[in-house]
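Something for you to look into today, if you have time. Could you write out one complete protein record for me, on any chain you like? The space below this message is yours for that.
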Amino acid sequence: MDTTPHILPTTAHTKEAVDNFQIALQVSTTGCSQTASESQMLPPAVSTNDPEKDEDDDDDYSSYSSPDSPVIPPWQQAVSPDPKTLNGDDRPLSAVEELCSLAVENLLKPVKDGIQKSPCNEPRDPLVISPINVRAKTGICDSLCLHSTPIIQRKLLERLPEATGLSPLSTEPKTQKLSHKKGSNTDTRRRIFLTEAKNQFAAVNTPKKETSQIDGPSLNNTYGFKVSIQNLQEAKALHEIQNLTLISVELHARTRRDLEPDPEFDPICALFYCISSDTPLPNTDKTELTGVIVIDKDKTVSSQDIRYQTPLLIRSGITRLEVTYAADEKGLFQEIADIIKRYDPDILLGYEIQMHSWGYLLQRAAALSVDLCQMISRVPDDKIENRFAAERDDYGSDTMSEINIVGRITLNLWRIMRNEVALTNYTFENVSFHVLHQRFPLFTFRVLSDWFDNKTDLYRWKMVDHYISRVRGNLQMLEQLDLIGKTSEMARLFGIQFLHVLTRGSQYRVESMMLRIAKPMNYIPVTPNVQQRSQMRAPQCVPLIMEPESRFYSNSVLVLDFQSLYPSIVIAYNYCFSTCLGHVENLGKFDEFKFGCTSLRVPPDLLYQIRHDITVSPNGIAFVKPSVRKGVLPIMLEEILKTRLMVKQSMKAYKQDRALSRMLDARQLGLKLIANVTFGYTAANFSGRMPCIEVGDSIVHKARETLERAIKLVNDTKKWGARVVYGDTDSMFVLLKGATKEQSFKIGQEIAEAVTATNPKPVKLKFEKVYLPCVLQTKKRYVGYMYETLDQKDPVFDAKGIETVRRDSCPAVSKILERSIKLLFETRDISLIKQYVQRQCMKLMEGKASMQDFIFAKEYRGSSSYKPGACVPALELTRKMLTYDRRSEPRVGERVPYVIIYGTPGVPLIQLVRHPVELLQDPTLRLNATYYITKQILPPLARVFSLIGIDVFNWYHELPRIQKATSSSRSDPEGRKGTISQYFTTLHCPVCDDLTQHGVCSKCRSQPQHVAVILNQEIRELERKQEQLVKICKNCTGCFDRHIPCVSLNCPVLFKLSRVNRELSKAPYLRQLLDQF
């Protein structure tokens, strides 16, 4: 059954006016050569949304429509002429019509000239811009999916009247270029444009309606997913079987109303599990099994026969589940232990297994004096290693989880996702949206408990469906990203355990690979203690990071990068622990001298024998050449780089297979990372396992010397006409003044070849890309339009270190900054950027911006990691939550969302921090527009545009300070007043927006029919928006009550619905005004 909301045409003054209005829209949506009579046969698609100005990636502004935009009043919309005019009958024009006619002719003149030159005059199908289907039913069309990207279309010059835009409810544009055909009725088209121009001239003083979303850059895909949908597991060979069994568990506890589940007080009512394996499960041919264990005191028989099953879940309509019933919680613990023994899973997982899932299960069992940890362990007698208390594993509780079950791996899925996907928060709903491309609702524990304990059986299925979707979703995310397969391959590559790939650091991996090579060569690693590390010589060299010439570059800037510079230096010059002879000032001595954390002695006679096979690094450290002894590190890194080269060649061979290419890219990235962190292993002087500052400093200094020689070569070669404007460790940015894109690629290849020829193998300079144009801000902060190949037509927006790729600000900052930079690169028109920025600031100041764009989300580091009295928003919110619920503390590393609101003058900023839910529930709270604009939005813009002499803060100072009191306060005079604005009522007329001391101004009172239509239309439009949003929520949640219990902050519909409900609160006041007419 189609549950898509339907939108009926908006009524006008009379039925005749509606018919004429629909005819006008039908005529304007015809093709290039469609006549007016043909267009009248089309079903009317009435737009109820006002198009909003927006910028496209081109030089022009574009306009888009949003479901949040209020409708245009009928007298401001395009109204068609009477039927006589449509039939071509002439009549005298008034003076105003003649003036508008001249304006329209000037508007259409360039269009007519272009069309007359066009050879194509056949009828065409209407241009389809949106994938939304239009119903054939007259007067009814599908509503816009609010998860979709706003529809973008062109807008003519600002000085000309704005053409009627495209409604999101229709797939046909209302205005198209007109093609002149012999015999076509051009007078009809001219009069239609004349009517539109008249209505727009008449509505000049009408304020422009704005949508709630901040206008950001065009999305890379339809819905803004951060992860593509390719299933990496499908790229594997069919015969590759891991022989692993996984079980995903979530559970429901009967909570004490709004509190989080507490294992000391809240009993477990049901446990949901999903078992998955790549081979058939025991006693079945299935590879996946989903089930539930329910506590029901009235039925204790556990059987597959329907005659012996309790109707607790059957009468709720729940089928296709493996249902098991237990008499009490201890029986539930025994049932889950039996299931684990029966299927013997290797991996136990849950989305959050410390406070919920397995963690809550073990804590609740301990509260009831049941040692479930030993019951589900493969080695139940090991009481020391079988543990789940955070006090016994501080490191584990902060990195993965404190749960340790011998013989089984426990995975905390949300912590794994932190390293896989870069998101602003890692709730199950947000991660599943980006990874699985599915929207999941979120319900509070109070709602879930009410559903399960309801007297009727009509709600229990909702709770079951909520948890079943999560236990299955956990396994789907693992499969989608192939986490098990990738982790297994990395474990085999590094020679470490599966869990250590996820929990241990880079030194552990390097040492594992290095020792496998060192052992056959009879080397024993040194294990220095803390005192030995502290006595080691301090490092003397730092990488070369030049201060860039900060400015906007309109010419080509080449980016050249040394390919794996540090590993290449180690291989080329044979730098290693086993090849180092120490500092040259100590050579030739008979005594031992300081070397790293220990000491070294080089006999003078041995030194004399190898005197011709010694190389000295720039910092004065001697090494032997490979002809004498090849080091362990060069051997290891050479094998890694060769393997990575083979993987990259396979990527080129199978580049058509996107899933396989993505999997291979992950493999080569893992090899690259292990190669690059090898240098860190030699130079980790504080917490390193085997640091040696002589080796580490030699690598850094030689790499610095290599980059300096490359920079000197580029600057001294006159034929290139190039100049290095920035250098960073292993890369350099080269400016080519006046060079075309073709010349830039040619010179870039020549530079790469020339520099590579001056260095020993395998040191290689690679020409990466061309920036045209770009902005260099400071060190490690730059942005530009990137071209990677000569035949690339469209540039790619590439940013490093600026707010568009950082997650420590709100989404609005990233959207506005990226859009402004793209406008600068494409148009070079500061006035367009100024208009765009001012329009977004006005949205925020007028309270029309969506709160979703202004939510910060920063990591919580744990209460013990902050200094006493620290003013950190995440810590402040945590303190407030802990005063209400002791189980509400976020996990270490979890991102805590918050917003900044207005407060009384002089209040510290930390006291203005609020959770987004508070703002949704309390209509008296407002976003602090001054803080967001002056402290968040404008400073990043100033860092970019100050380089070209633009003061963006003046743009903000030019804006009017508009703040209107809400009219809803009149309808509830006895309500609680918390802010000063609630003690005052609006003095603006709801019809014309003029100031008045009465509800409706005297000018509008003289037109009662006009007032009645406007107010009724505004009320009806708000109710229509609410109904449309509620229908979307009903389809997603499966709840058909008027109140939607979903509280997912990751869903844009939640904020749209909250905004519409606030606007709808003024409906009683508007109805009071209607009673006066």
